[in-house]
Amino acid sequence: MGPRPRAGAYTYDWIERLLGVDIQNTDRILPEYQHLEVGEFLALNDKGQGIMVRDVQPERFLVLQWIPAKSTWAFGLYPEDGGRTRLVSRNRLSGSGPLFRLGMIAFMEPGSLVMERKMLLGIKSRAETLAP
Questions:
Q1: Closest alpha carbon to 108 in 122, 120, 94, 123
Q2: Hey, is 7 helix, strand or coil?
Q3: How buried is 59 (Cβ within 10 angstroms: 0-12 exposed, 13-18 middle, 19+ buried)?
Q4: H-helix or E-strand containing 110?
Q5: What pTM was computed for the model?
Q6: In the chain, at which residue ranges do the beta strands (DSSP E only) sit?
Q7: 10, 78, 103, 131 - which has most CB atoms within 10 Å?
Q8: Do the beta carbons of residue 15 and residue 21 sit within 8 Å?
Q9: pLDDT in tens, 76-131
């Protein structure tokens, strides 16, 4: 996942581009982008905004931090019965006070719900297509 030349975010890429992120969703796996390292920075635009890899354990979890914000985004894979796996995505946003809360309720939560749902469904579809 990530901005070009990576595979996108599996969200509504036209919305991402409206926000200034150079995203183009794809279904191809590029081997050269399959090994994230802690400290690696994925630039989202030419203004210094992006995602820093904070922790990674292949086939278990990935923790990212939005830069310049201190918000984090974590993905975890949890084995379930029947050979199934649950993918959980969690966001932790830094901030406090009534204006922060109002902004979260009015803008971030609805937008995040729409985009993250699309992303998770896109990952699910790709994983099921690639599964033997």
A1: 94
A2: coil
A3: exposed
A4: helix 109-130
A5: 0.77
A6: 41-43, 50-57, 61-67, 72-80, 84-92
A7: 10
A8: no
A9: 999 999 988 999 988 887 777 888 777 777 777 777 788 888 888 888 888 888 77
One-letter amino acid at 93 equals: L
Asked whether the beta carbons of 86 and 75 are under 8 A apart, the reply is no
Cα–Cα distance list, 77 to 15, 20, 21, 68, 108 (Å): 27, 30, 26, 27, 25
Q: Which pairs from 66-73 meet CB under 8 Å and 24+ separation?
A: 67/41, 69/93, 69/94, 70/94
Domain boundaries, the chain: 13-130
- Whether domain 13-130 has CATH 1.20.140: the reply is no
